[in-house]
Amino acid sequence: MPKQKRVAAKNKASAKKTKPPKLGGAGKASQKLTFPKDFKWGCATASYQIEGAWDLDGKGPSIWDTFAHTPGNVVDGDNGDVVCDHYHRMVDDVKLMADLGMKNYRFSLSWPRMFPTGDVKNVNKKGVDFYDRLIDELLKNGIEPLATLYHWDLPQALQDKYGGMLSKEFVKDFTNYSEKCFEFFGDRVKRWITFNEPSCICVLGFGLGMHAPGRANNPGTEVYLSSHHLLLAHAYSVDKYRKKFQKKQKGVIGITLNAEWWEPVSTHADDINASLRAMNFTLDFYAEPIWGGKGEYPKTMRDAAGSRLPAFSEKEKKLIDGSSDFFGLNHYSTRAAGRPSATTALQCLPREIRSLWSGMGSAGKFLNAIKPMVNPFAASYFKDMDISPYPDPAGTEYTTMRWAIAPRGFRSLLNYIHNKYHPVGGIIITENGLASQEDTKEVMEADKVSTRIPFFKGYLKEMHNAINVDGCDVRGYYAWSFMDNFEWSFGNSKRFGLVRVDYETLERTPKPVAHWYKGVMDDNTLVID
Ligand code: GBH
């Protein structure tokens, strides 16, 4: 049998053997896991993924409009032109949120909707008005807003003008933009996030070219340069808030980082070091400057990248050190890491191909994206990291993104962050969730037996363990996402919502998981039966 077929047959056989994880058994008393008092429960979305109205009422184009409008970048040629049309359905959406028991809602502000050219001197009144109405509507419905200033939709004008985040000019423009937002909305918004997921922005946008602005040309420098400017923009913006607004507005401001948990594939020191390097290059890259106490990048990264990784000046170090009132964390999955090995990297290729390729739209794009990972000659962020992914343990289950379902990894990650950084203000989970296939009404009705509710049960249970057993300071949880939406380069093909969106009729239908989640939020308690 050719090797490929053998592997496929083996996968099929092992898929048959593995049953869905049992969370307790019949006859066992159900377990009630209560969360800390004042725990913040809610859900999250982002502007480009739900709003639509991409060119209405004076909005300027963002780099995601440009990226999605370029053929070959997004699966099925999908884009955010209309998606959920939240821009026109906002009042009903907020009402539905309230009906589903949401007390907290994380959304993002679209910079080019309010400032079409990116420049704060040129304000689009109608764009500001939309967010004014959204915030008022939320408060009217007893929902506390958490606003993200940047969830990936940079004004295209700033990309054109100076290369966006590749230029230090970005720092000033972002700080000015954020200042306007504090001014406009800070009387009502008491929780702010500067950037959503620096690692995705810079690694996918400037390393793999899989996200806007779609660059993969110089992954050995541009990932670092864009990250550096992003962190500076974050620090200056927080400084602005603290000095000019915080006392009066009495809010908090922080940043959201994304991280997988990288589990060492063996107890061999080389593998343990490799898994730590993976944590350094993904999470600590952005966490250490902010919470590490010195305003510096991880030593492993400085050693590996040398002068390609810019250094902070003494003044900048002071500014960035401690520049977050809480630790925002987005978490989705766990992976195995070990010492570099061409063999295991190849073994993992089927998984990378499935998840990466289906997100790349075209073969040419995909090849372009894996070049920086596999080219042994060119300097790259990936080469600097110097690890290999290893295959997941047999029997691992996956979401439809091909991300492993591994709740224990969530607990490990929370412990890692808590023990390494002890963040003031605690950790807030600003995203966690899954895509699962729900293309038909029948499948949706069967959600109780699909992966969705068990996924949340598993992850919430491990979060509870991290809090109650391990003593981690976790203060909130926002499920991703309120409704199905535009999943970036995967387009509308992946459904992350608690609420189903029919993209033909734009009808919203809460999935069974939404009703289940309401129970958890209402009682501040997770029941495992
Ligand atoms: C977030 O990013 C975004 O903030 C949000 O907009 C998006 O819709 C949502 O998540 C869902 O994707 O193949 O096992 O190595 C997600 C960040 C980075 C999480 C890559 C999963 C790969 C997992 N993702 N990561 S794995």
Structure characteristics:
Glyco_hydro_1; binds ligand GBH; GH_1_N_CS; three-stranded mixed beta sheet; alpha/beta; eight-stranded parallel barrel; TIM Barrel; 15 strands; hydrolase; 46% helix; glycosidase; Glyco_hydro_1_AS; disordered N terminus
Structure description:
This protein has 529 residues and is an alpha/beta fold. The chain has helices spanning 3-17, 47-50, 63-69, 86-99, 111-114, 125-140, 156-162, 169-185, 198-206, 222-249, 269-291, 299-305, 314-320, 342-360, 363-374, 381-385, 407-421, 441-445, 452-468, 512-523, and strands at residues 31-34, 40-44, 104-108, 144-150, 191-196, 252-258, 261-264, 327-330, 334-338, 388-390, 427-431, 474-480, 499-501, 508-510, 525-528. The chain has one domain: TIM Barrel (Alpha-Beta Barrel), CATH 3.20.20.80. It contains 20 helices and 15 strands. A hairpin with a 6-residue loop joins strand 13 (499-501) and strand 14 (508-510). Helix 8 (169-185) runs parallel beside helix 10 (222-249) and helix 9 packs antiparallel against helix 10 (222-249). The longest helix has 28 residues, at 222-249. Bound molecules: ligand GBH. Ligand GBH binds next to loops. This is beta-glucosidase.
